[in-house]
């Protein structure tokens, strides 16, 4: 045992830089997990008092800032001259700045998104033809998961410049369905049947009342708009069940759902002659 201690002491005396490296490793091993723990605790506190978006933002700011300080401390401990490093970084930042204009625009757009709050983490959002659940709102982009489980990243600048729809912003939604019936159908009876369908479906809300509107005379049908209201969590269940209800009720009441038809007149050769 004494021989081992003596060997270690001799080694450290002959290689003093080993002590510095050892201290740097210890600093990194202790500080990074501690930083992550503090960031998680503070993030949880902020989430409870504000929102999940703000909690994620606070956590990232703490982790990024703390990581920079820890790395700087380790570099100083290893004997690096931070002044020279910062000077070189300043020169490099000028060149990088010209190439990072898009990133800066996204950061500014992210700040506007935070203050405006058009949506939050967990909302279902549609941007153009893209729709999904918001996973995170970061400084550069918004991350989403589509309903077929694909990862989507949308730059903040795109969200600021484009029209976006927050589908789950309000607690209730209206399911708007176009319904067409044949021209020999009784308009009043069709509207009564649609009202009965809404009353009997357990997912439909009584208030507000469903929208039932005679829309127009189509090429081969009478066109209606049927819009029952539903809680946002029941939207897909209503959409799936209401279509079946319409078909069954129309069949039971003798209401025909038309399909495109063409009338062909065939003339005999004698008539053509």
Describe this entry's structure for a reader:
This protein has helices at residues 2-14, 16-49, 52-77, 82-99, 101-116, 156-161, 187-200, 235-252, 269-272, and strands at residues 124-127, 130-137, 141-145, 151-155, 164-166, 172-174, 177-181, 211-217, 222-227, 229-231. The protein is elongated and about 105 Å long. The mean pLDDT is 80. Helix 1 crosses helix 2 (16-49). Helix content is 55%, strand content 18%. A hairpin with a 4-residue loop joins strand 8 and strand 9. The protein is of the alpha+beta class. The strands form 3 sheets. The chain has a 5-stranded antiparallel sheet.
Largest sheet: 5 strands, antiparallel
Molecular shape: elongated
Strand order of the largest sheet: 4-3-2-1-5
Q: What pattern of helices and strands is seen along the backbone?
A: HHHHHEEEEHEEEHEEEHH
Structural class: alpha+beta
H/I helix tally = 9
Mean pLDDT: 80
First and last CA, distance: 122 Å
**What percent of the residues sit in helical stretches (DSSP H or I)?**
40-55%
Based on CA atoms alone, the radius of gyration comes out at: 33 Å
Poorly predicted runs of 5 or more residues: none
Total beta strand runs:
10
Q: How big a fraction of the residues is strand? A: 15-25%
